[in-house]
């Protein structure tokens, strides 16, 4: 079961209004696993720098696993910013090299 991250992530800096639409994670709302096995990610839609709507990204378990693997690959080599007990295995240093996660 997915649990809320106890360490809040800092918000991204706002873009100037000319950038139109932007989608952000909702601060304080965790990613959840639903009864049907899907994973939901609460999102906010901003238009021209102002809140416009609540959105939910719904992923199947397979889609969530694939996204997790892609995020770990994209973050490879970047500093780990989560506490050790909350860091995914693919981001931990294993014997001098990053662990790998294959979808």
Describe what you observe in this structure.
The structure is a single chain. The C terminus is likely disordered. A hairpin with a 2-residue loop joins β5 and β6. It is built from 1 helix and 6 strands, in the order ββββαββ. Strands 1, 2, 3 and 4 form a 4-stranded antiparallel β-sheet that branches. A two-stranded antiparallel ribbon has the order 5-6. Helices cover 14% and strands 29% of the residues. It has 103 residues and is α+β, with helices and mostly antiparallel strands.
Mean pLDDT: 81
| Distance separating the two termini | 19 Å
**How helical, in percent, are the residues?**
10-25%
Low-confidence segments = 99-103
Beta-strand level of the residues, as a percent range? Answer: 25-35%
Characterize the largest beta sheet: strand count, sense, and whether it forms a barrel.
Answer: 4 strands, antiparallel
**Rounded radius of gyration (Å):** 16 Å
Total helix count?
Answer: 1
Give the number of DSSP strands.
Answer: 6
User: What is the approximate shape?
Assistant: globular
- List SSEs in N-to-C order: EEEEHEE
Helix/strand-derived class? Answer: alpha+beta
Task: Provide a quick synopsis of the model.
This protein has 103 residues and is an alpha+beta fold. It has one helix at 61-74, and strands at residues 21-25, 32-33, 39-47, 50-59, 93-94, 97-98.
């Amino acid at each position: 079961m997915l649990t809320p991250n106890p360490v809040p992530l800092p918000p991204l800096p706002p873009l100037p209004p000319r950038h139109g639409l932007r989608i952000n994670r909702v601060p304080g709302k965790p990613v959840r696993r639903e009864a049907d096995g899907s994973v939901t990610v609460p999102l906010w839609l901003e238009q021209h720098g102002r809140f416009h709507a609540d959105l939910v990204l719904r992923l199947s378990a397979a889609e969530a696993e694939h996204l997790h693997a892609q995020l770990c690959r994209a973050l490879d080599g970047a500093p780990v910013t989560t506490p050790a007990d909350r860091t995914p295995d693919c981001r931990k240093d294993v014997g001098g090299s990053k662990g790998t996660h294959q979808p």
